[in-house]
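seq as requested:
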Amino acid sequence: MKLTQGTDERTVLVVGLSDKRLSAPLAQALYQETDESIKLKLERAELRKMNVLFAPHPETKPDKKMRRQLLLIKAQQS
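struct tokens:
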């Protein structure tokens, strides 16, 4: 079964079912994440960390003029 959690997609094997809502630790015992899914999740986390280094957040929010300029640049790139 494939699940989307935030920006990550996880593949899990359902081991058991429950008739009622359970606490998180008990619910986690009812499924297992595949090794490939864990590997992909770790790789994507590393990519996100690297992306932060190459595209840092600005110290201030862009003003109206800067937002217009950014929109023009993005429109030209697509």
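Residues 35-54 form the longest helix (20 residues).
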